[in-house]
Amino acid sequence: MLCRVANSVFWMSRYLERAENAARFIDVTSAIALGYRGRDEGLWSSLLLAGGDVENFQQRYTKATQANVTRFLLFDRENPNSVVSCLASARENARSIRENLTTPMWEAVNRFYLRVRAAAANSEQILAQPHPFLEQIKRSAHQVIGVTSATWSRGEAWQFSTMGYLLERADKTSRILDVKYFILHPDSEHLSVGVDVIQWGALLETTSALQMYRRTFGRIEPAKVVEFLVLNPRFPRSLRFCVWQAEDSLRAISGSPPQGFNNRAEQLLGQLSAQLSYARVSDILNDGLHEFVDDFQVRLNAVGEAVFDTFFQISGPERQSQQQRIIST
Amino acid sequence: MTSPTVAFDELLEMDGTPRHMALSECLASMPVHLLAQRQRYAEDELLEMGITFAVYGHNEGTEKIWPFDVVPRPVPWYEWQMVEAGLKQRIKALNLFLDDVYGEGKILKEGIVPQDLVLSAKTYRKECVGIRPPGGVWTHVTGTDLVRHSDGTIYVLEDNLRCPSGVSYVLENRELMKRVLPEVFFGSAIAPIDDYPERLLGTLLQTAPQHMNSPTAVLLTPGIYNSAYFEHSFLAQQMGIELVTGPDLFVDNDIVWMKTTRGPQRVDVIYRRIDDDFIDPECFRPDSMLGVPGVMRAYRKGNVTLANAPGTGVADDKAVYAYVPQIIQYYLNEEAILPNVPTYLCSDPDQCKYVLENLDSLVVKPTNESGGYGILMGPTAPAEERAKCAESIKKDPRNYIAQPMLTLSTVPTIADGALVPRHIDLRPFILYGEELFVLPGGLTRVALKEGSMIVNSSQGGGSKDTWVLLQ
Questions:
Q1: Cβ atoms within 10 Å of A126's Cβ, excluding its own
Q2: How many domains does chain A have?
Q3: How many angstroms separate the CA of residue B452 from the nearest CA in chain A?
Q4: Where are the domains positioned within chain B?
Q5: Which of A118, A262, B169, B183 has the most CB within a 10 Å radius?
Q6: Closest in A3, A92, A107 to B48, CB measured
Q7: Contacting residues of B for A114, CB less than 8 Å apart
Q8: What is the DSSP letter of B3?
């Protein structure tokens, strides 16, 4: 397939996943806020911190209030990672490769975009009560994934799309874990007692992971929650699952056999995958969850860049706004 | 041509008798508010389907849907047969003309068409002299504009031989009609149009360079900001070929390649929706960012087919247009089936004098523009615009022609909850590969403003489904 098309397919999926995750971010924070005793601003600014958006936010807002942060993440067109910007980018990418998508896929993306655009025109009302809109975002995103799965041939384009949303999802799950870190454990050694079971539960719920977690581990324990979201081999939002599946897609694209690599992207993704396959949650917690997440994001970004250099660069499309900033400590 | 009186009504005879009983009965049985409701539904569908065109100079609303009117425009079968034969005749002759103009130049030497008129056309490409595209096909796709005047005659208004657009709306309008107004289809036998993409693909592959066994065709678009981008994307999707932009292609060793994730892949046929001017910065405009450097070298070597061929614009120059009846006579030894609109060439001193003396009753057009740009509607234009136009004509007579003001025929159209007559034209699409094919019907554009004759999408026009009625 054309390099330009591969690039657009990849980014269309990433932006859709990014929008859905922005909705999850707001949801998790709102849920935690209900039981949060600290200052409200600290809570919402930690969300910005985890997302790597602080600088961008501070250029236009003074206080990290719920209203400001929600507006920034949902409707701010100056924020390239806001839901409204992501949908515009996803749709622009989709439009430029429309002939490669099935009609139901294109229509689902277009409808998603039109809904978000309509909501943006009506933002005050939405911000007063964001929950239904956040749900709608998740549903619309799932709808795109659904029609994609039901109507698209499993060719090269499919693999690029799959790889795109998996890499994005892995990045975002790691960031959601970090939100928790910033809110409750600036001192990562305290990651133990069950005082904040409700909040860990809320975190699981906003990654749609609570039910699956219960079936696996039963009671909520912080270490097991981390294990589930980082290392579970079967849960579709865990880091390990996302990296494994992305690796599969990459191999399908390059036609490389297992246990080998033909390009830099495969090499980096393979290393990351191996690390997750042979990790133990106690080691991760001992070394520090935040440090682990930080390192993971750096390596994931390197994979994204290697994918660009290996497959998209030949035709020289401009790099899209790509990676969000890495959290710096 | 008689002087304009009352516009021809495509649905009713002068005495009010329906021309198409089944259709009229069906429309009469539906209350107008119901039609209007279906219309709104249709427009919502268009937005959701993303069937839009770009309006230049806007931001948020860069994409607009093109208004769609649910009342179809009928064409009776006997009349369509005449139109079809006329279009085939015309396209055949124009291709022979192009072959001749860029080849031996017999028709020019014999003075049937004045040599200097042809060579002075802005769309004449000296770079194409001596090139003969595969099969002698220059215009793979044509979208001829037809209008019916108040005298009931169908005239050819323009031959669009370069990159005519609009066929995607023809196909989508039909699909939309079936969804929103299934009732009106009952009892009518309508010529199907669904096979257009298949036929277009066939045309492209048939005209591939001779030596290719299984040729690869692509559609070259200027990109998503082009006003016809939807159509480019739609046609590529329907044909299952790659939609490419200039930077996706490169020329190496006079062969065209596209850049894929698995390395370069050879391209044999380019259905290009980019004007000659922009297609190759090495050959034409050096500032073009849209084209493919070197593609003309590959074309000249016979390594790639360009559809339509570069240089076809010379045959739809509006001054050359005036000679099409003679062109048909010369190559085919036949009378033109479809008449031209009487045309005054300002390059001819006597005709120019007549034009300048009668500006208030004529329509003046630049010879090398499309999309309705630069046209002066004499009868309605303010005096100062007419004066300005007269100056332009005197300065560059070759660049202008004039025609009598036509009264376009009408079809009932929904406006403010009522059915009212609105003026229309018709653009049928003609494919030319191994043989000629005319898509039954075509794009009916409608001027939505009362009394307006301007049907262009950029200037308040809409579209209708066109029905060639088989019985």
A1: 21
A2: 1
A3: 33
A4: 21-341+406-469, 344-405
A5: B169
A6: A107
A7: 47-48
A8: P
With an 8 Å Cβ cutoff, are B247 and A3 in contact?
Answer: no
Least CB-CB distance to B237: which of A1, A98, A315?
A98
Q: What residues of chain B have any CB closer than 8 angstroms to a CB in chain A?
A: 47-50, 223-224, 229, 233-234, 236-237, 242-245, 247-248, 258-261
Average pLDDT over residues B431-450: 95
Architecture of the domain defined by B344-405: 2-Layer Sandwich (3.30)
Query: Buried (b) or exposed (e) across B446-469, using 16+ Cβ within 10 A?
Result: bbbeeebbbbebeeebbbbbbbbb
Is A329 domain-assigned?
A: no
> Looking at per-residue confidence, does A84 or B288 come out higher?
A84
Cβ atoms of B280 and B296 closer than 8 Å: yes
Backbone phi and psi for residue B261, each to the nearest 5 degrees, phi listed first? -65, -15
Q: B400-404 and B145-148: which strand pairing?
A: unpaired
Query: Residue B445 corresponds to which amino acid?
Result: R
- pTM for this structure? 0.86
The Cα B367–Cα B424 span in angstroms is 23
Tell if the CB–CB gap between A99 and B243 is shorter than 8 Å. Answer: yes
- CA of A81, closest CA in chain B: separation in Å? 18
- Across the interface, do A253 and B261 touch by the CB < 8 Å criterion? yes
For residue A110, what are the domain limits?
Answer: 3-315
Among the partner residues A2, A6, A107, nearest to B244 by beta-carbon distance: A2
Report how far residue B410's alpha carbon sits from residue B462's, in angstroms, rounded to the nearest whole number.
Answer: 13
CB-CB under 8 Å, A2 with B258: yes
Classify residue A323: in a domain, yes or no.
no
- Catalogue the E-assigned strands of chain A: none
Tens of pLDDT, residue by residue over A240-298, are 999 999 999 999 998 888 778 888 999 999 999 999 999 999 999 888 888 999 999 99
Q: Partners of B259 in the beta sheet?
A: B264
Residue A175's CB is within 10 A of a number of other CB atoms, namely: 21
Contact B305, B134 (CB under 8 A): yes
The 3-state secondary structure of B252-287, one letter per residue: ECCEEEEEECCEEEECCEEEECCCHHHHCCCCCCCC
Tell me, yes or no, whether A209 lies in a domain. Answer: yes
Does A322 fall in a domain?
no
